[in-house]
Amino acid sequence: MSDTRSSSSPGVAALFSQGRLTAVPRKTARREQLLVHLTETLFERDRAYSEYEVNQALLTVHEDCSALRRYLVEAGLLTRPRDGSSYRRAA
User: Fold this and answer.
1) Residue 41 near residue 22, CB atoms below 8 Å
2) Domains of the chain (ranges, CATH numbers)
3) I want to staple 57 with a disulfide (CB 3.0 to 4.6 A). Which of 25, 42, 48, 83 is the partner?
């Protein structure tokens, strides 16, 4: 994982301890900031990921990869076809 103090996500470093996410923020704006950071640091542009690959990437920062994956899709940061066969970083 890249440095948690990305210039595009100020303050996100406070959510991590020793490279691990300590908790998923409940406040929508703060969670969105975290999700943007995760998208930028864990997923490459123009690459398709299987659900397993998405889970493995998210597990590097937090044990609840399913919730994080769902939040990323709901926020429109990761997209997937209707059949759920792959995931891609949006924009």
Assistant:
1) no
2) 12-89 (1.10.10)
3) 42
pLDDT at residue 65 in the model: 97
**Scanning the structure block, which residue is given the tokens 């998923």?**
24
The token pair that represents 58 in the structure block: 């998210």
**Contact assessment for residue 39 and residue 6, using Cβ atoms and an 8 Å cutoff:** no
Residues 6+ apart with CB under 8 A from 63: none
User: Which pLDDT value is given to residue 33?
Assistant: 95
Q: What are phi and psi of 58, to 5 degrees?
A: -70, -30
**Helices H / strands E in the chain, number of each:** 3, 5
Other C-beta atoms closer than 10 Å to the C-beta of 72 total 24
Q: Which residues of the chain have pLDDT under 50?
A: 1-9
Per DSSP, helices labelled H in 1-91 are 28-42, 51-59, 65-74
Amino acid at 24: V
